[in-house]
Amino acid sequence: MELSQQLSAFKETHQYRSLKEIDRKDGGHVQYQGKDFISFTSNDYLGIASNKGLQEAFLKENQSDFFSFGSASSRLLEGHSSICTKLENTIASAYGKQACLWMNSGYHANIGLMSSLPQKGDLILSDKLNHASIVDGLKLAKAQFERFRHLDYDHLERLLKKHRDNFNKVFIVSEALFSMDGDCCDVKKLVALKQKYNCHLIIDEAHSVGAFGENGLGLCEAEGKIENIDVIVAPCGKALGAVGAFVVLSAEWKEYLINTCRSFIYTTALPPINTAWLLFTWKKIQKAGSLRSQLEDNTNYFIQKAKESGIDTVSTTYIQPIIIGDNKDCLALAEALNQEGIIVSAIRYPTVPKGTARLRLSITSNHTKKEIDKVLDMINHYKKSETHADTLVK
Ligand code: PMP
Domain 70-270 class? Predict the structure, then answer.
């Protein structure tokens, strides 16, 4: 099919996507074309990325240092800055792991890991709802892969029983907090299975690092299982308020990635200024217990209010999907909320399975209770008053 026909088909099936320019945002609020909106679309769960006070403190603290705004080569080509060494050492020791590898993004990290670490003769078992970057990595992998039903560890165990003896190494891969469903993997069960079947466990903490655990290390910290996880991938563009991703792992696996991981080798490194900013936010995050409590408080408030107003909530975290089902209805509801000054993402196939289009609300520590009331009231209002998408948007 011609590209133009495909684009038309996207429009007909309400899968079409377009970009929009914003004036400013602060992890819970955005301004578009001079108009203010409450936003439930940001992954800046703790409001770090847009915190002016932190930005000023960063610039003041780092005034005497020279951090370039471009890195000019891949890390292997010309080397990396001392701030990069400091970041990797600081993070490895925070996790009590041998090593940390700082990479350009979570996407780079996941496609690189999946395609580099597991070898021919190995097997990767991946949760069916794992992020696209893991799925794309699986497609590039030298190892065979199979997907187990989402959070269905009986299914995972059946696969392990069936396949374990036929493969050299077996890697189990799961997100910690699933980005589109807001549910969490059961770290303890995964560790138990990994130990029972002598496998390796890779956990992607994209949406949980910073916001879970006493020191913000993520869900594995909250579950007391960091030492049992072989690889933790932590994309830094969400609660950490930065960019890039770090991977904590053994020294040997780091060395292997440096030598073979194409998404690490063949890309220009992130500029030192970004590395310095992450190191700065990382130190703040460790001590950000009050922001985490605020986020938890907002989440509990949202869940309680949603229940009271008869809105189905299936998640217990700050990622709250409200399943609508049909693409058109979901878009219409998002558009109706938009008219009321509220931005909520309408998540559709292929990001989520067909027929499960949803509003995805991400709650942040910056939201006020009043704003949470407003979005829930509006969702309730539109869900109750109009069921047909054509009449929802006036
Ligand atoms: N893993 C998960 C679970 C994600 O949600 C994302 C980003 N949405 C990524 C990896 C990719 O991270 P990045 O944005 O740093 O490429």
Answer: alpha beta
Give the pLDDT band (50/70/90) at residue 67: confident
Residue 391: pLDDT over 70? no
Domain(s) of CATH 3.90.1150.10: residues in the chain: 9-51+289-392
* Whether residue 385 has pLDDT greater than 80: no
pLDDT at 287: 93
Cβ(47) to ligand 1 under 6 A?
no
Report the nearest-CA residue for atom 13 of ligand 1: 106
How far is Cα 330 from Cα 326, in angstroms, rounded to an integer? Answer: 6
User: What is the CA(235)–ligand 1 centre distance, in A?
Assistant: 6
137 Cβ inside 6 Å of ligand 1: no
Matching residue, tokens 């998408």? 389
List every span in the chain annotated with CATH 3.40.640.10: 70-270
The pLDDT of residue 383: 76
Query: What percentage of the chain has pLDDT greater than the value 90?
Result: 84
State whether the beta carbon of 107 lies less than 6 angstroms from ligand 1.
Answer: yes
CATH topology for the 9-51+289-392 domain: Aspartate Aminotransferase, domain 1 (3.90.1150)
Cβ of 177 less than 6 Å from ligand 1: no
25 CB less than 6 Å from ligand 1?
A: no
Could you tell me the distance, in angstroms and rounded to a whole number, from the CA of residue 348 to the centre of ligand 1? 17
Q: Answer whether residue 32 shows pLDDT above 50.
A: yes
Nearest residue (by CA) to ligand 1, atom 9, is 106
> Could you tell me if 387 and 342 are in contact, meaning their C-beta atoms sit under 8 angstroms apart?
no
- Look at residue 233 and give its three-state secondary structure: strand
ipTM: 0.99
Q: What angle do CA 90, 208, 139 make, to 5 degrees?
A: 95
Q: Is the CB of residue 105 below 6 angstroms from any atom belonging to ligand 1?
A: yes
| Dist. CA 246 → ligand 1 center (Å) | 12
Check residue 386 and give its pLDDT.
55
274 Cβ closer than 6 Å to some ligand 1 atom = no
Determine the Cα–Cα distance for residues 360 and 373; give it in Å rounded to an integer.
Answer: 16
